[in-house]
Amino acid sequence: MNRSLLFLLGSGLLFVLPGCGPTNRRGGGDDDDSSGDDDDTGGKDTPWDCSTLYVNSQLFTVNSGRTYSIDVTNAHVEEFADYSDEEDRPSDPNSAAFGPRGQAWVSDSGSNTLMVLDVCEADVWVVGSTGFNHLCGISYASDGELYGMDSNTDSLVHLNTETGAGTAVGPLGRDIGNCGMTLDCLTGTLYGVDGPTGELFEVNPKTGAAGKAIDFNLSAMQSVGLEFDPADSTLLMTDGPDLYRMDPSTGALTTIGAFDLGGGGAHFNDLAYHLGALPCDE
């Protein structure tokens, strides 16, 4: 697989997924594999240890019925998987984060639930209600736990990956609207973006507090997708129709291009990397 491919989830999310993630079974009852005892990865993976996984990484985006791959060199988009016939498909997926084995956590704002999407099998299922109305960015942090930013309460939320339930960690200390969040899996830094103001900031996963903001001169963003690229320690970001690369130390943006899907324009709301080759053919 080509490392320059990024995957999108139909409605448009940007997400990068380092290490831990969903199990390879649907949760619930005696079939729940969340304990990790039978996990073929040997327990919880280290989500920030991505130093050897540059090769064969792929970027995705997700919408309500399909996943797409994105070429990060020119923003070209191709359909990767169709799950539109699935009964439990997300109605308004606005953020995603990858785990191992081609599976991703998806935050669905349409139903306020946490879901699991199996990219290889084009299968999706509900984990449970988050209890929050607009988790506009979800990501692992360096502690191996899954978090989201909620724009209704302007807070950081911890997500229970067995039940989907969210628990407020603490206030961000700033207002956010449309947002995105991603982990620098090399340094353990958790980044957040606020679309209305066009600002990048660090997030403390222990307190929820947002750090000093950096202006990247792109405001009034109707959509936000954010992902870390371990190849050069930059951030990949979308405002919906276009793909950008950002220097997180300065906020400087480089435009990669407009999303090209079947010769026409496309609008995406999330980006996520699967680090390492997908196991679809295993």
What does this structure look like?
With about 280 residues, this protein is mainly beta. The chain has one domain: Lipocalin (Beta Barrel). Helix content is about 0%, strand content about 40%. The chain is built from no helices and 23 strands. The chain has strands at about 5-10, 60, 65-70, 75-80, 95-100, 105-110, 115-120, 125-130, 135-140, 145-150, 155-160, 165-170, 180-185, 190-195, 200, 215, 225-230, 235-240, 240-245, 255-260, 260, 265, 270-275. The strands form 5 sheets. Strands 1, 2, 3, 4, 21, 22 and 23 form a 7-stranded mixed beta sheet that branches. Strands 5-6-7-8 form a 4-stranded antiparallel beta sheet, with no helix packed on it. A 4-stranded antiparallel beta sheet has the order 9-10-11-12, with no helix packed on it. A hairpin with a 6-residue loop joins strand 19 (about 240-245) and strand 20. The two termini are about 15 Å apart.
Oligomer: single chain
Say what the CATH topology is.
Answer: Lipocalin
Give the CA-CA distance, first to last residue.
Answer: 13 Å
Number of domains: 1
Helix amount, in percent? under 10%
> What's the helix count?
0
Topology pattern, helix = H, strand = E: EEEEEEEEEEEEEEEEEEEEEEE
**Average pLDDT for all residues:** 81
Highest-level CATH class:
Mainly Beta
Q: What is the architecture at the second tier of CATH?
A: Beta Barrel
The main pleated sheet reads as: 7 strands, mixed
Give the uncertain stretches in residue-range form: 1-5, 7-48
